[in-house]
Write a structure and sequence with these properties.
Shape of chain A: globular
Mean pLDDT of chain A: 90
Order of helices and strands of chain A: HEHHEHHHHHHHHHEEHHEEEEEHHHHHH
Strand content of chain A: 5-15%
Low-confidence stretches of chain A: 5-10, 13-17
Strand order of the largest sheet of chain A: 2-4
Distance between the termini of chain B: 25 Å
Oligomer: heterodimer
Distance between the termini of chain A: 79 Å
Helix content of chain B: under 10%
């Protein structure tokens, strides 16, 4: 008996003395305290920032989320078919959304998810000791994080107008007391970030090992976009010019082949979100179809009709127009849209028998691979900014800032020449002098036909205040659910209700 | 007789029935007579006392004046037996006399009854805490595949909800003891033979006793794990000197309690057309198409399929349990095997389970007991490859009655003749093709030693080890939907895929306890000190691959493309000490104190130690001298207790800030291994504490015929660990646990039982009633936070209150429509009339309020038993009074819709319609009181009729006991709700939950 008690007491002491018994380290994660010790670790954290761009509410187009690609179908470019009216963008297009609509929280959260990862990198890397990371590497990593962060703030400031401008990692109590900043303050912060980054980032990178990382060109092109979106036209033109003047970029040989897996490596692509399939867990599904063109989101007819005939004339005026033959049309029509005349490779036929799946008879074709692969895991990069966009941004900025008309024409003509379409002087400008206003309309039209289904149209219509007129045109087609756009309210997105609930310092936009 | 005996030996069972018929005749050859009077100790005549002759069917009852007479007795052989409820049974041998006056002593067994409590047993009379026991006799034949379901409605303060009848889903039975005190895990701790476990691991037939510890005084000795209450299960042990073998079995058929009544295809097409037109599109179904639906002339193109009937079925359920027990004065054993096989009422769902157990112990030198309990269970659960919910969602949202189950060519139906519409998710197809199979293999081994060196001093040590492996196998075959003409079309699955996963959990616990009991001059004392160490870990692994050569091979090596793996692990440890002192004076004044100290690896070092004390006292009023002369109360006890409990169910590493791996990206063609913070940590996290005060009364009246227990409790949980929502500006990160809220559960509970006898009829009735009010007292200074848009946690309201707009029917005239400004959508006639609660002239987000209480007003259960000679009957009713649930008939015609939709508002054809107009789903599906149903129900949970064969013929064939029974579960439900079951999980807003089942069973109980 005595022995038992001694054993028992010994056992008890053993355990109580043995505090190690109660100490465990999470085997599934790295500890934040022991991280941030080498350049390699800083790069891992930076890769985490880029990773956050692959989000179904940002640049990983998906029927389940609602990122800028799906935004195209909230414009006059396309619509959600009735059976897919449950998709989140459809709610916005119908105009029956409110601050509780998940679409606004999804986009908001996804954007700030990228921002908070970038803030973490900017904060931590700038505090890493010199023996842990070289200054060049550190400043490059920080600059890249700033470019990525600016990409998101630019969209937030356009859509929600005033949002919290958070540039440092926040604790939870801090995040619950962060008020909105003015759009102007946000813009000036990201403009400064981008200007700084352009000083630091390398002009060229090794595409084999670094494609996808922000370069000087990416920073400048994004700077042009930020300035153009927020009314700083001269600065926009300058930034675009710096990109053009660098001579590092050009237009891809053929338009259609740019929107393929291989096209992602073209010199036309300044900045993209990378995807790598199949089976590598880093794929996307921009090219997703089921062997037939996707029927959940389809184009409006007025987009197809916006593609001129090869003589440069609109279909209403051109003698070449034949509704049953697309070969007389701007080749970008066939590249971007599947029409009843299109040939679909997988079925080795005209797709005509499938057309009833689209009320407009049209499907989007850009990025589509015409095979029945059903790949939810493809290698199609999402293009954030490409060179044609830079040319058109400078053209638009010049038109708005009363710049040189000839240069505007030359910029647009460069984009047209690649697809064999006649220049402005041989088309709209034939035999007359165009005003800056007319040139601006031409640039806007060119942006639409060139950049359709690249996730820019919604932002363009938003900043041009042209959404209600675009809705009027598309509503006239009588396809899909009826749409509504209230210009007194819908030109600013509501701050998500959940965010107002969780951050008491936030105030809803007065329109809501 | 010679022949008969010979036959009996040869074929005993076959002759049991024949013997029954003859026994009456056989029992009458002699003619001795006996008569007399039966009285109680006070000399009062007792009526209705059973007087029987042992081993025969001879029996009678005493009359009003306590008299009886019996003839046909054999002098020197017959033994008279006198029994009556509330009295000790007496026997008298029949001698030469013919007069037998008998005095029956009141039964005091109720007071000597012992109840299993933490680390031991306690005389029921000496209990000072709030404890309920399950009467195993009431539930032993109820066919369940989940042991937890047996508890429903049986005990006061214990609220059990059966959310579905899906086989093998342990989570579908929810046990809540005295409300919910926290926002995370509210499941009670289950202790089986002293070791933390789970109810599913023990077969109902193995359970000797099941006790629920409801207050802090009873449970505090379990400290940090006990805040949600404790369920103590003790399994059967062997007998001292008798061997026994028992078989209990049943076979039953289950059906859904209620099926939704979906509209016919022509009505569906009409509704769908209306919706399309309202949305600005053309009506897709032409009059001709609708006519073809009605006349069935083109069934491949325009069918009328009732998908509810197609996916539900009558499904069998069988239960078998065989046990053997025996022993000697020094050794005991009990071994059992149980088997449950349940097919689901939803096609594609089923479960098989085997339980095994061996309990053995032996005693050396009268002072050392050594023993081992080994048990295990194996379970296999089958589901459709995307789960049962996917099939139910397919019915509700992704299929339409216009599509046939199969086309005439034998292929699955996916399309109807309206070619613009996309493929449906054929529910039957999704339920039957491919599979998702999960298994559980669980072994629990426990060895113990109990040394009693001097009388009443026990030194016990206990080591237990539990191993659980849950592999999963999932296979998705390739497929291609086709149109009626055979053309392939739409979303198929081009790549078959197999996934295999593994989850392995281990637990060991070492506990060392010393107890000593002392009784000096009426001062009874008991002491307990103990120490324990517990270790838990788990490890998961999953692998998958695509593109198998065909749909017949499923092993991972046969797959060709896209292999992948994932895995994770975690561990936690707990070191504790505990002690208890009991003191009782003269069986009248009772006192108990407990303390437990826990140190958990889940809590950061600076806050690691949690101390949980409790105190309780009792006063056995009935034992006082001044009560000695009364006969009304055999027991009257007042109880008072107070104590603290803890909760550590907050994940494994809540305080360490980690950076998640696997946030990779591709730079060029090389993978950049990315990292990012995905969970925010709280380095200051500390214990959550529940304090419970309990006042109770136990009473037994009229010689224990009536028993009554009433408790009032106040349970307050402070520093509740919860994942308070955080601003989305922090990104897609999960919020950390913080010690933030205070919640109170206050209420009372009562249980009463009465047993009586009238002639040969014995009867009993038990009732229990529980009322709990759940209220959030404080949320860290916040007013509230909203969960998934439809639920809110708000100060002054219960946890997870239903949240949204208050509505008042529909807008029926333009005037009402124009009264307020609408900001929530395009509102028109026939839309929900949401109220402008803050009266600011517009209906907006600020008009939301609490629109429902997810907790029932009260819950109750009642059990009635009747016995008449060999026949027994029991009925068990369970119900809740008033609970709010969303029963949203989602206002969009996409999948099947119930007949409720036919009452949609239309300004001309149906201006009185109560269902909103079609075509404005976003607005009309807002969280509004329109969709909240206050349900109450009373359910005949179990009804059972049994017949026990008389013993005499059985004994001759070596059978101790044979009983046949028929039973039914959920046979009747009284509720106002149509289409759906009133018992459903609170988060199921759109009625996608697997329904409950009613079961009819036949069974047998057999003892050798």
């Amino acid at each position: 008996m005595k022995n038992s008690i001694i054993v028992l007491i010994a056992l008890a002491c053993l355990f109580s003395a043995c505090t190690d018994f109660l100490e465990h380290v999470d085997p599934n994660e790295i500890s934040n305290q022991t991280f941030w010790n080498s350049e390699q670790e800083a790069e891992m954290a930076l890769a985490g920032c880029y990773d956050a761009l692959q989000d179904e509410y940002l640049f990983k187009p998906s029927p389940n989320g609602n990122g800028p690609f799906n935004f195209e179908f909230m414009t006059d470019n396309g619509f959600f078919t009735v059976y897919y009216d449950w998709m989140q963008g459809a709610e916005v297009a119908r105009g029956d959304h409110n601050a509780s609509s998940y679409v606004f929280l999804g986009f908001w959260t996804a954007s700030y998810n990228v921002i908070s990862r970038c803030n973490q990198v900017i904060h931590q890397v700038s505090r890493m000791p010199e023996n842990a990371i070289g200054e060049t590497a550190a400043s490059r990593i920080i600059a890249e994080a700033k470019v990525v962060r600016a990409l998101l703030y630019n969209q937030l400031a356009l859509l929600y107008r005033d949002v919290p401008l958070i540039l440092e990692p926040q604790t939870i109590p801090e995040s619950q007391q962060t008020p909105k900043s003015d759009r102007a303050a946000i813009v000036s912060a990201i403009v400064a970030d981008l200007e700084g980054a352009a000083q630091v980032l390398p002009p060229t990178i090794d595409k084999g090992t670094e494609l996808g990382r922000a370069t000087r060109g990416a920073a400048l092109a994004l700077l042009a976009r930020v300035c153009l979106y927020h009314g700083l036209y001269e600065k926009a033109a300058q930034a675009a010019q710096q990109v053009i003047g660098s001579g590092l970029y050009g237009l891809h040989g053929t338009y259609a082949s740019l929107f393929t897996f291989e096209g992602g490596k073209s010199d036309e692509i300044l900045f993209s979100v990378r995807y790598k399939g199949t089976g590598l867990s880093e794929g996307g599904y921009l090219s997703l179809n089921y062997g037939y063109p996707p029927e959940w989101m389809v184009p409006f007819r007025n987009l197809a009709d916006a593609y001129h005939c090869v003589d440069g004339k609109p279909i209403q005026e051109s003698p070449l127009y034949d509704p049953d033959d697309d070969s007389t049309r701007d080749p970008r029509l066939m590249a971007n849209i599947t029409t009843p005349n299109s040939y679909w490779e997988w079925t080795q036929s005209k797709y005509a028998w499938w057309y009833w799946n689209s009320p407009s008879g049209l499907f989007y074709r850009k990025f589509q691979r015409e095979y029945n692969e059903q790949v939810w895991d493809d290698s199609q990069d999402y293009y954030l900014i490409r060179y044609a966009d830079v040319l058109l941004m400078r053209a638009e900025a010049l038109a708005l800032a009363a710049g040189d008309a000839n240069e505007i024409k030359a910029l647009v003509d460069a984009v047209r020449t690649r697809v064999g379409m006649p220049g402005i002087d041989d088309a709209e400008g034939q035999g007359k002098v165009l005003t800056h206003g007319e040139l601006l309309d031409i640039v806007k039209h060119e942006r639409r036909v060139e950049l359709a289904f690249e996730g820019l149209r919604y932002f363009d219509l938003f900043r041009w205040r042209a959404m209600e007129s675009a809705y009027a045109v598309s509503n006239a087609e009588g396809l899909g659910s009826k749409r509504d756009f209230n210009p007194d309210r819908h030109y600013v997105w509501p701050i998500p209700q959940a965010e107002l609930d969780n951050n008491k310092a936030l105030v809803q936009a007065p329109e809501w | 007789m010679m022949d008969a005996n010979f036959l009996l030996k040869r074929k005993p069972l076959a002759l049991v029935f024949a013997f029954m018929l003859f026994q009456v005749v056989a029992a009458f050859p002699q003619a001795k007579r006996a008569e007399g009077t039966v009285t109680d100790e006070d000399g009062m005549a007792l009526a209705g006392v059973n007087v029987s002759v042992r081993g025969t069917a001879l029996a009678t009852q005493t009359d009003e004046s306590g008299r009886f007479s019996l003839s046909g007795l054999v002098q020197g052989q017959s033994i008279l037996q006198f029994s009556s409820v509330g009295y000790q049974t007496q026997t008298v041998a029949v001698g030469a006399d013919s007069r037998y006056d008998v005095v029956l002593k009141a039964e005091v067994a109720g007071l000597d009854e012992v109840v299993v409590v933490a680390y031991g047993v306690q005389k029921k009379a000496n209990l000072t805490g709030a404890v309920s026991s399950l009467r195993m006799d009431d539930v032993k034949n109820v066919p369940v595949s989940n042991t937890a379901a047996l508890l429903q409605g049986r005990m006061s303060g214990v609220t059990v909800s059966s959310f579905s009848a899906q086989p093998g889903k342990a989570d579908d039975v929810e046990i809540r003891i005295r409300g919910i005190g926290t926002f995370g895990n509210n499941n009670p701790m289950v202790i089986i033979d002293g070791v933390q476990g789970e109810l599913a691991s023990v077969a109902p037939g193995d359970i000797e006793s099941l006790t629920v510890l409801k207050d802090a005084a009873s449970a505090a000795i379990y400290g940090v794990r006990a805040a949600n209450g404790v369920i103590l299960v003790t399994t059967k042990r062997g007998n001292d000197d008798r061997r026994s073998v028992a078989y209990n079995g049943s076979y039953g058929w289950q059906q859904a309690t209620v099926l939704p009544d979906y509209v016919d295809s022509w009505d569906w097409a009409m509704l769908y057309n209306e919706q399309a037109v309202a949305n600005g599109s053309e009506a897709p179904y032409t009059a001709e198409m609708v006519q073809q639906m009605r006349d069935g002339s083109r069934p491949d193109y325009f069918a009328n399929t009732d998908w509810a009937r197609e996916v539900y079925r009558t499904a069998p359920l069988q239960n078998h349990h065989v046990s053997m027990a025996g022993g000697s004065a020094t050794s005991k054993y009990m071994a059992s095997v149980g088997y449950v096989k349940q097919e689901g009422i939803l096609i594609g769902t089923s479960s098989d389970r085997v339980n095994l157990r061996l309990n053995a112990e032996t005693k050396y030198l009268d002072m050392l007991t050594l023993g081992m309990n080994v048990s295990g269970h194996m379970q296999q659960t089958d589901e459709p490859y995307r789960g049962a919910t996917d099939v139910l969602e397919a019915v509700k949202a992704f299929s339409r009655p216009t599509v046939p189950l199969r086309y005439a060519n034998g292929q699955w139906g996916f399309f109807d003749g309206q070619t613009q519409l996309t493929a449906i998710r054929n529910p039957v197809y999704r339920a039957t093709v491919g599979y998702n199979e999960s298994e559980t293999h669980n072994v629990i081994a426990q060895s113990f030693a109990d040394l009693e060196p001097i009388k009443n001093l026990h030194i016990k040590t206990n080591f237990s080890y539990a191993y659980r492996s849950s592999p999963g196998y999932r296979y998705i075959p390739t497929d291609q939907p086709t149109r009626p003409d055979g053309t392939p079309q739409g979303e198929g699955t081009l790549r078959n895929q197999a996934t295999q996963s593994s989850y392995i959990a281990k637990q060991w616990i070492n506990e060392n306890v010393i107890t000593y009991n002392l009784d000096v001059d009426g001062h009874a004392m008991a002491f307990l000190v103990g120490q324990s160490a517990q270790y838990n870990d788990y490890r998961t692994f999953s692998g998958w691959v695509q593109d198998f050569p065909n749909n017949e091979v499923h092993e991972l090596s046969a797959g060709v493309n896209n292999p992948g793996v994932s895995g994770s692990s975690a561990k936690a440890t707990l070191l504790s000490f505990f002690g208890r002192v009991n003191y009782a004076y003269a069986g009248r004044y009772l006192f108990e104190a407990n303390i437990r100290g826990d140190r958990s690896s889940r809590i950061p070092r600076q806050n690691r130690l949690g101390v949980f004390p409790s105190f309780s006292a009792g006063w056995n009023v009935a034992n006082e001298a001044f009560m000695a002369d009364q006969r009304l109360f055999s027991e009257l006890k007042l109880r008072l207790s107070w104590g603290k409990l803890g909760n550590q169910e907050i994940g494994y590493y809540p305080f360490s800030q980690g950076i998640a791996l696997n946030r990779s990206y591709f730079w060029g063609d090389s993978r950049a291994p990315g990292v990012a913070i995905s969970n925010l940590a709280n380095e200051e996290i500390s214990w959550e504490t529940t304090t419970i005060t309990d006042v109770g009364v136990d009473a037994s009246l009229w010689r224990d015929r009536l028993t009554l227990t009433v408790d009032y409790f106040d349970k307050k949980t402070t520093d509740i660990l919860l994942e308070l929502p955080i601003p989305a500006t922090l990104g897609w990160v999960s919020a950390p646990y913080v010690n933030a809220a205070t919640v109170r559960n206050r209420g009372w509970e009562a249980a009463a039982g009465y047993r009586g006898q009238a002639g040969a009829l014995t009867w009993g009735i038990n009732l229990n009633l529980t009322k709990v009010k759940n209220e959030i007292l404080d949320v860290n200074g916040r007013e509230d936070w909203i969960e998934s848009g439809r639920f809110i946690n708000q100060k002054g309201h219960p946890i997870g209150a239903l949240y949204g707009y208050r509505s008042d029917g529909l807008y029926r005239d333009e005037g009402a429509l124009a009264e307020v400004r609408h900001t929530l959508g395009n509102v028109g006639l026939g839309d929900l009339k949401l109220l402008d609660l803050n009266e600011d002239g517009q209906v907006d987000q600020n008009d939301r309020t609490v629109i429902g209480n997810p907790f029932p007003d009260f819950t109750y259960g009642t059990n009635v038993n009747l016995g008449f000679k060999g026949v027994d009957f029991s009925a068990f009713l369970q119900g809740i009074g008033g609970v709010d649930r969303f029963y949203m008939e989602y206002p969009r015609v996409a999948g099947n819709v119930t007949t409720v939709f036919l009452d949609r508002f239309d300004p001309t054809s149906n201006p009185g319609g109560n269902y909103p107009r079609l075509g404005n789903e976003n607005y009309n599906s807002l969280s509004a009181s329109h969709w909240v149903v206050r349900t109450a129900y009373l359910r005949l949970k179990n009804i059972e009729l049994g017949y026990t064969l008389p013993r005499q013929p059985l004994n001759k064939v070596k059978l101790q006991h044979v009983r046949f029974f028929v039973s039914a579960q959920n046979l009747l439900t009284f509720t106002d709700l149509a289409h759906w079951d009133p018992e459903k999980v609170v988060g199921d807003v759109r009625n996608h939950a697997y329904p409950n089942a009613k079961t009819f069973s036949l069974g047998i109980n057999l003892n050798l």
